[in-house]
Amino acid sequence: MKNTRTESRTLSLKTAGRQTKAFRKAFPEATKAFYFGRNAIETLLAHPDATGVRYYHGLDARQHEHMVLVAVDAMGNDIINGDIFQRGFPCPPICADYNVLNSISVLTMKRKKADRAFTGMEDHSFTLAEAADLTSRFQSTKTERMAGGFLAKEEIEHTLAQDGAVGIRFYNILDQDNNQGMLIVAATSDMNDLLTAELSYTLSAPAALCGEENPLNAAATVYVR
């Protein structure tokens, strides 16, 4: 399956807020969102064959959730040969101030972020083996959750092009048909979200649409080979 811009779509801010809330209600133990700096994302998109990125959910040995990003080629396959894998900063505790997408106490967030700031140059890198350990554990134990999904290069670049954007925050969403997905929002240096009238999103792909089997998706349930 070839990846194109049509894999990513837009939501109104009102609908986006409703879908982030629906996800948190359905999966109260799950991490709400993850932040990735501009430099990490642009490193992945700079690969000459990249048409976008695939995000994978991960789980460490302490049962903490993570997110892994990897570049994806035009045939929908992960580009794992020598590329850098990126691991995001979770929300909570590293969240924006209270807004329609996160619905978290402003006071709690101010305490958590008082001595922090985003630069866009954060080091999210780690190895394929480390990434595969996270994704395989998640896919083996969180069978009610989707393994990951694809976001088109054009949509990511559009989000990063907003004034003041130093990175992107990825929010988990759940739509009216109970399809899991991911919403992307530009993030500022003061760790807040740049909320616009329309936000890009993608619905998570089932394992059959994860591209060729590799260490990041090999444990995905109902994988079609």
Give the count of helical stretches.
5
Query: What is the typical, i.e. mean, pLDDT?
Result: 83
Number of separate structural domains: 1
Shape: globular
- Element-level helix/strand string: EHEHEEEEHEHEHEEEE
Based on helices, strands and strand pairing, what is the structural class? alpha+beta
Estimate what percentage of residues fall within beta strands.
25-35%
Flag low-confidence runs.
none
Strand element count:
12
Could you explain the architecture of this structure?
The structure is a single chain. With 225 residues, this protein is an alpha+beta fold. Helix content is 23%, strand content 28%. The chain has helices at residues 13-26, 38-45, 106-113, 128-141, 153-160; strands spanning 9-12, 33-37, 52-59, 65-72, 85-87, 89-91, 125-126, 148-152, 167-174, 180-187, 193-194, 198-203. Strands 1, 2, 6, 9, 10, 11 and 12 form a seven-stranded antiparallel sheet that branches. It has a five-stranded antiparallel sheet with strand order 7-5-4-3-8, sandwiched between helices. Strand 3 (52-59) and strand 4 (65-72) form a beta hairpin. The protein is globular, with a radius of gyration of 16 Å. The model has no long low-confidence stretch (mean pLDDT 83).
Summarize the structure.
The protein has 225 residues and is of the alpha+beta class. It has one domain (5-209). It has 5 helices and 12 strands.
Which characteristics define this entry?
225 residues; alpha+beta; 7-stranded antiparallel β-sheet; 5-stranded antiparallel β-sheet; 28% strand; globular
